[in-house]
Amino acid sequence: MDLTKYILFNLIILFSGIGSAQVVFKAEASKSEIGLNELVEVTFKMSEDNDSFSPPKFENFEIFSGPTTSIKNTFIEGERSYEKSITFRLKPKKTGNFVIASARFEVAGKIYRSNTINIDVVKSKKVDREALDALEKEVFLKVEYLEKPITQQDSVIVTYRLYVSADVGVTNWRKTNDGKISNATSDDITPEMYKIENTEIEGKKFRSVIIKKLKLKPTKKGKIKISPMIMEVTANVPTGKKDIFSRNVLEDKIIELNSDKAVIEVD
Hints:
By secondary structure, the protein is mostly beta strands.
C-alpha cells in the first residue's frame, strides 16, 4: 500500500470513528420524592459542549437557584471523556406527581432530547423544631440602624444584614418580601458587590453580608415604621456523619428568616 493510500485509509477510519461517537444527553434528579418544603436538584448531563441547550419549563416548580454549570474532563489510557453538567434547584408549588419534561440540545445540526423525570411532591415534611431553633441561632437576618430620634431634616441609614456562623454554610438565598416602609422616602444604596465581613457576637465567630441598604428621609413628624424583610435561605448543616475522607457530611436545610420590625421616632 503506498503512503498516500495509507494516510487516506487512516483518515477515513478516524473520521468515521468521530462521526459514530455516541452523544450522551441525560437528566437526573437528586430525589424522586420531596416534601413541599424541600428542594430538588435536576441536572442535565451532556457529552458534547454546545451553547444550544434549552431547559424545560419546569411546570409546577419554580427555579430556586441556577442554572450552575460544571465541566469534567477525564483521561483514561489516552482516551478523553467529557461531561458538561447544568443544574437547577427547584422548589415545588404544590403537591402531586409531576413530570420534568425533556430538555433540548443540538449537536452538528441534530437535535437531542433528555429523558423525562418523575417527582412525587408530598405534604411538607415534619420539621424538627428544636433543630430549627438551633439553626436559626447560626443563620439570621438583622435590620440595623441608629436607634435614636431624628428630625424631619435628618436622614437615617437602614441596613439589612445576613449573619452566618462559622459552623454552617449558605449556598443560596432570595428575598420573598422586601418589607414596607411608611412615612419616609427611600433611596437604595445597596453595594453592587457582596462583601463578606467577619465579626463576633457574644464570643462566637460569624460572617456577615449586606443584603440591602437604604437611606430614609422622613416625610412628616411621628414614626417611620419598617416591616420585616423575609428571606429563604439554603443552609449547609453538618449531619454528624463523616465521608470516607473523614470530612463532615453536610445536608441542605431551607429556612425562612425574618428581620425584626423597626420604628424610628421623628421629632
